[in-house]
Design a protein that fits this description.
Blueprint lengths: L1 H26 L3 H18 L9 E6 L1 H6 L8 H13 L4 E5 L10 H14 L2 E2 L1 E4 L2 E5 L2 E6 L5 E2 L3 H5 L6 E2 L2 E3 L7 E2 L2 E4 L2 E4 L1 H9 L9 E2 L3 E4 L2 E4 L6 E2 L10 E4 H5 L7 H6 L23 E6 L7 E4 L2 E7 H14 L4 E2 L2 H18 L5 H26 L1 E2 L3 H12 L4 H19 L3 H10 L6 E14 L2 H7 L2 H21 L3 E6 L2 E6 L8 H25 L5 H4 L3 E16 L4 E6 L1 H12 L7 E4 H8 L5 E10 L7 E9 L5 H18 L3 H12 L16 H12 L12 E2 L4
Helix pairs in contact: 1-11, 1-13, 2-12, 4-5, 7-10, 11-13, 12-13, 17-18, 18-21, 22-23, 23-24
Length: 732
């Protein structure tokens, strides 16, 4: 009996250990627990205190209210002032000058100033300009790949400043955690197909004399360019080691650097005395060596600039943007990284803690149990402070504290709760989700499905059988079911094989998406490949059905139209709290549906947007795309370039390639309003189209014939000024 009780206690204890560990680690990364952990990290910085920056190579130059009060011109200043700033800083021996100011507009009021600024940049050769990709980037603490913004836009210096500058510009976009604090640094971002590096990285590249042609290498643990290394945290970004509160680094006002014998400040006018802050022989900055061999960061700290952020040591949001970059640069220069504790070590410690709390507190009285909880609680707090302060190791506190609490409080009831919870979880998952991939992910994570969604870049896929009502008329219900089941099985196999997630069947229509719930970068390519494979498979099915005597002739000619679009869409659980479906929503989903229905207007069977084509081209070239037209689909106002996937290149004849070339040349002539040339080229391409009227009973048109009609109609019109060639669709 005793042995049985002991055995049961051990079994229950092991269940409690595993459950406590699982719940604690899962809950610790969610909602208020994550915010608590982030705030505790800020507190660790406070407890450690500021670090010594006396020997720092970083000097700050501020565009402050005082600077604005000294200059005759008010902000934004003529770029001549910045030309003078660069000139004087280099006179003072600055090694690298980083401008945390985006010069994306010409100085219209003082055009000559831009030329002076450009010449100063060229002469100096050590200036790093800044740009932006979005104004703000918010990234999940646990997943750096979730970077998103409602508007993706590139803001860069004007061409005049770029072409004279040997150094690439760096983006100054900030990364905020869910509490709007800055703690991490994003080294690179992509805009369209181009990769851009962070402002701090480009400054370090110049400071370390790393060629501008050298690219950033990403490993499991580091980002590296030349001998510059940035340690990756678990989030995939670098944790910034903040050295102290605002003005931790040496700081001077811009007017002090610019004020030489060529610049007259308002103070000099008021006092009728020339006293130059830069080159005065007695106290001028030129003679102090404060800038010699230094990294000089220039930023706007005026309140109107709104370039202030909440960060450790600056919870009120008063840390200027250029100090964020300064702390990131100093972290890399000193290699003073904040290390996340190794996951395996953390897991082992948490496992031991769970074992201790479960088995030690099982056989003690309540008062002693409380004492144990308090002592272990305090010990872990002291441990995290010690590791951070003296070892620069970040050991998260939330999971250990949860394990201590749960291990003690749930000892007597945990086995029952776990059993019931697991039964409910499995039942709910399998009744709510269709995608096997999603089910697997939910099982592995241990998370219950919840209502809500997240915005990601994915590819939406729509397909529909052409003139399906005809099949309903010619087939019995059983025959129709057999036909559709065979068709959908074949198409779904291809979809699944390419990593797509089936959203739903709507009769004969297939709705799917690529890139969620399991993210992968080549989702557009795989969606396009799916479309091409489906058309190829359907041709095989048509041949098969034609060889089977039980099918009426209409089945032999079954054709499917497919539409694909790539963009930001919301994916998640939609519905009610009792019944929901994992699906997609958003304007880009609607555009994909319009691609499928709009394909009929061009006589094609696969139509994709330009975004999809560009994204797919990065990962393969075995498919032939044909530019169709620039159109505005029904329900939208923004024109979109549309393309046809003609098929796999290996399956196409030389005539098809010639057809595509002639067609696209005709479209170019069309855009130039050269109607005669467009008509001639379209006439030629129409004779080479892979699908021509009469090949199958349900093939009535093709792109060449459709556009030929349009060209002839347009030829009757007079020349249109500023014509964009956009075609507005009036039907879905």
């Amino acid at each position: 009996m005793v042995k049985k009780k002991t055995r049961n206690r051990i079994i229950v204890g092991l269940f409690l250990v595993v459950g406590t560990l699982f719940i604690s680690m899962s809950v610790s990364v969610t909602g208020p627990f994550r915010v608590f952990e982030l705030k505790w990290l800020d507190q660790l910085f406070q407890l450690r205190g500021a670090l010594n920056t006396q020997d720092s190579p970083i000097v700050l130059v501020a565009i402050s209210e005082e600077t604005d009060s000294e200059f005759p011109d008010k902000y934004p200043y003529p770029t001549y002032y910045y030309a003078k700033l660069i000139e004087n800083l280099n006179k003072a021996g600055a090694k690298t000058i980083g401008m945390d100011i985006i010069f994306n507009k010409n100085d219209i009021a003082n055009p000559e100033s831009d030329s002076l600024f450009s010449a100063a940049i060229k002469k100096a050769g050590n200036v790093v300009l800044s740009g932006n990709i979005n104004n703000e980037t918010r990234i999940s603490y646990s997943d750096a790949s979730s970077a998103k913004s409602n508007t993706i836009s590139l803001v860069e210096p004007i061409d005049l400043f770029q072409k004279e500058n040997p150094n690439p510009w760096g983006f100054v976009s900030v990364v905020t955690d869910q509490d709007a604090f800055i703690r991490r640094y994003l080294p690179k971002r992509k805009h369209l197909s181009e990769e851009y590096y962070a402002f701090a990285l480009e400054v370090l590249r110049n400071y370390k004399d790393i060629p501008s042609t050298e690219r950033l290498i990403e490993t499991d643990n580091y980002f590296q360019i030349g001998d510059v290394k940035m340690l990756k945290s678990r989030s995939g970004l670098m944790l910034i080691n903040f050295y102290g509160p605002p003005k931790t680094y040496s700081q001077y006002d811009m007017w002090q650097v610019v004020d030489d014998n060529e610049i007259t400040t308002l103070s000099e006018v008021a006092f009728e005395e020339e006293v130059n802050g830069f080159d005065d022989p007695e106290f001028g900055l030129l003679y102090t060596d404060v800038f010699r061999d230094k990294i000089v960061l220039v930023g706007n700290i005026q309140v109107e600039a709104h370039d202030y952020y909440a960060a450790p040591f600056a919870s009120s949001g008063n840390l200027p943007g250029y100090e964020i970059h300064a702390n990131a640069i100093q972290t890399v220069l000193d290699q003073s990284f904040i290390y996340d504790i190794d996951f395996n070590v953390e897991l082992a410690v948490l496992l031991l803690l769970a074992l201790f709390m479960v088995f030690v507190t099982q056989n003690v009285r309540a008062v002693f149990g409380v004492i144990i909880v308090i002592v272990v609680f305090a010990s872990f707090i002291v441990l995290t402070i010690y590791l951070f302060t003296f070892k620069s190791i970040h050991f998260e506190l939330t999971a250990p504290l949860l394990i201590i609490f749960l291990g003690y409080s749930s000892t007597s009831v945990y086995d029952f709760l776990v059993e019931q919870k697991e039964k409910r979880r499995i039942k709910n998952m399998f009744s709510s989700y269709v995608s096997p991939e999603l089910v697997n992910r939910m099982i592995e994570s241990g998370e219950e499905p919840q209502l809500g969604g997240d915005e990601f870049e994915i590819s939406a896929f729509f397909s529909d059988i052409q003139s399906f009502s005809t099949f309903s008329e010619k087939l019995t219900p059983k025959e129709l079911v057999d036909l559709i089941n065979e068709y959908l099985s074949a198409m779904t196999d291809i979809l699944t094989d390419e990593g797509g997630t089936l959203d739903k069947y709507i009769g004969d229509a297939i709705v799917a998406f690529y890139g969620a719930p399991i993210p992968f970068e080549n989702h557009a390519y795989r969606a396009c490949k799916t479309a091409a494979r489906m058309q190829k498979k359907q041709a095989e099915l048509r041949d098969k059905w034609a060889s089977e005597p039980n099918w009426p002739e209409v089945v032999h000619y079954m054709m499917t139209r497919i539409g694909v679009n790539t963009g930001m869409m919301v994916t998640g659980n939609m519905g009610s709290s009792r019944r929901f479906n994992y699906t997609m929503m958003g304007d880009n989903v609607n555009l994909a549906a319009r691609c499928e229905s709009g394909a009929k207007s061009f006589g094609v069977f696969i139509m994709v947007t330009e975004e999809t084509k560009l994204a797919a081209d990065k990962y393969g070239s075995e498919m032939l795309f044909r530019y169709l037209d620039m159109i505005v689909v029904k329900g939208r106002s923004i024109p979109v370039k549309m393309y046809e996937i003609v098929g796999f290149k290996e399956d196409l004849s030389p005539e098809v390639f010639t057809c595509v070339e002639l067609y696209e040349a005709a479209m170019q002539a069309y855009s130039e309003q050269n109607w005669e040339k467009a008509i001639d080229l379209a006439t030629q391409s129409s004779k080479l189209e892979p699908w021509r009227p009469g090949m199958l009973p349900n093939v009535k048109d093709n792109p060449s014939l459709i556009m030929l009609k349009r060209f002839k109609e347009m030829s009757k019109r007079e020349y249109i000024e500023n014509w964009d060639g956009v075609f507005v669709m009036t039907s879905k």
